[in-house]
């Protein structure tokens, strides 16, 4: 009985030592900090990009100082590319160029006395862009110089002149762009372009050139890759 009591006392003493050692070790451990998720990094639009676009254009063409303007419309598809720079205040500036195949055309006839037709071959533009970034959404305006290669056919009093003219105009528009990944962005934009000095090959009674006039509206959608 004495041996059993002694063994029990030793066991209880050992258990007490272990318990005190464990408590002391736990007190020395650092406090567990709660997990805090890292804040998402805002998207930055700075960089080069290259994309493809498709759209529809419509407008009116005619001869300068003559009545009888006519509709010119059709689809277009092309490529665009440029560079954006985003400032710390989320203002974005950039420069962009595009080139498009354009199948817009139209014509008008005046009771057999006159006939006029306009047909696009290609068009393009170099534009400056100014926008504001709402993280992954960019709202922008753009404007610059436009170019187009146009086939013109005009008949006046039995005289027909056919000319292919690369003409220069001005363009302005606005759009919205959204970054769906770190590299891929989609966009939609409206663009107005005016060409008002198109060579027709005709002269008036005073010998002055009769220029063609053409305005064009476009709705374009595109997808681009940011490098």
UniProtKB/TrEMBL annotation:
<protein>
    <submittedName>
        <fullName>Porin</fullName>
    </submittedName>
</protein>
<dbReference type="InterPro" id="IPR011250">
    <property type="entry name" value="OMP/PagP_B-barrel"/>
</dbReference>
<dbReference type="InterPro" id="IPR027385">
    <property type="entry name" value="Beta-barrel_OMP"/>
</dbReference>
<dbReference type="Pfam" id="PF13505">
    <property type="entry name" value="OMP_b-brl"/>
</dbReference>
<feature type="signal peptide">
    <location>
        <begin position="1"/>
        <end position="26"/>
    </location>
</feature>
<comment type="similarity">
    <text>Belongs to the Omp25/RopB family.</text>
</comment>
<keyword id="KW-0472">Membrane</keyword>
<keyword id="KW-0732">Signal</keyword>
<dbReference type="GO" id="GO:0016020">
    <property type="term" value="C:membrane"/>
</dbReference>
<feature type="domain" description="Outer membrane protein beta-barrel">
    <location>
        <begin position="33"/>
        <end position="227"/>
    </location>
</feature>
<dbReference type="InterPro" id="IPR051692">
    <property type="entry name" value="OMP-like"/>
</dbReference>
């Amino acid at each position: 009985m004495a041996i059993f009591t002694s063994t029990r006392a030793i066991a209880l003493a050992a258990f007490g030592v272990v318990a005190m050692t464990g408590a002391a070790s736990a007190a020395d451990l650092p406090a567990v900090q709660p997990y805090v998720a890292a804040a998402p990094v805002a998207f930055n639009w700075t960089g080069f990009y290259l994309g493809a676009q498709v759209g529809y254009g419509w407008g009116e063409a005619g001869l300068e100082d003559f009545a009888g303007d006519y509709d010119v419309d059709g689809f277009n598809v092309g490529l665009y590319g440029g560079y954006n720079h985003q400032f710390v205040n989320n203002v974005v500036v950039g420069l962009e160029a595009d080139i498009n195949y354009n199948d817009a055309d139209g014509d008008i006839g005046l009771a057999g006395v006159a006939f006029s037709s306009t047909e696009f071959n290609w068009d393009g533009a170099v534009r400056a862009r100014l926008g504001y970034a709402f993280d992954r959404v960019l709202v922008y305006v753009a404007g610059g110089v436009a170019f187009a290669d146009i086939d013109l056919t005009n008949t006046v009093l039995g005289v027909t002149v056919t000319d292919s003219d690369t003409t220069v105009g001005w363009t302005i528009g606005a759009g919205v762009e959204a970054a769906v990944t770190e590299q891929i962005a989609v966009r939609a934009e409206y663009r107005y372009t005016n060409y008002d000095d198109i060579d027709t090959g005709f002269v008036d009674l005073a010998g002055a050139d009769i220029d063609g006039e053409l305005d064009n509206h476009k709705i374009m959608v595109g997808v681009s890759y940011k490098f």
